[in-house]
Amino acid sequence: QVQLRESGGGVVQAGDSLRLSCASSGRTFNRDSLGWFRQAPGKEREFLATITRTGSTHYADSVKGRFTISRDNAKRLVYLQMDSLKPEDTAVYYCSSRDAILTAPYYTTINDYSYWGQGTQVTVSS
Question: Which residue of 44, 56, 60, 83 sits 20 to 30 Å from the alpha carbon of 112, by its own alpha carbon?
C-alpha cells in the first residue's frame, strides 16, 4: 500500500527550470524502480524517465538532455529536474513506483508500475 505524493509544480516561462519531488511511503523504497510520467489535456499519459534501484536512468527522447531523474533512498524521495522548459511540457506530472529485483530492466510503460501519485500541474508559458 505505497502512497506517493508529488510536489513542486507551478507556472513558469519557457526556458525556465523546475524541480519536482515525489515522496514515497514505501517500506522498501530502495528496492523500487521509480518513474515519471506526464499527461497533457487530450493526450495519453507519456513516459518521461525512470531510475532503477541501483541508480541507473533512462529517458524518453523528448526530454533527454533536459530532464534529470534522481533518487534519495534515505529520504524516500525521487526528483525530476526539468531544465529548458518548453510550452509543450505543459502537463500534469505523475510519479510512480514498482517493486523490482536488482537486475531489473528499465520500465517505460504505464502498466509496468503499481503505484501512482495524484499528480502536480506544470504550466510553461511562451
Answer: 83
Q: Which three cell numbers stand for residue 71?
A: 533518487
Give, for 71, the enclosing helix (H) or strand (E): strand 67-72
Q: Are 108 and 50 in contact (CB under 8 A)?
A: yes
**To the nearest whole number, what is the mean pLDDT of the chain?**
97
Grid cell locating 55: 541508480
Q: Could you tell me where the DSSP H helices lie in 7-126?
A: none
How many beta carbons lie within 10 A of that of residue 27, not counting itself?
10
Distance CA 53, CA 43 (A): 30
At 1 the pLDDT is 81
What's the pLDDT at 38? Answer: 98
Cell of 90: 505543459
Interval 14-38 mean pLDDT: 96
Residue 96 near residue 37 (C-beta atoms within 8 A): yes
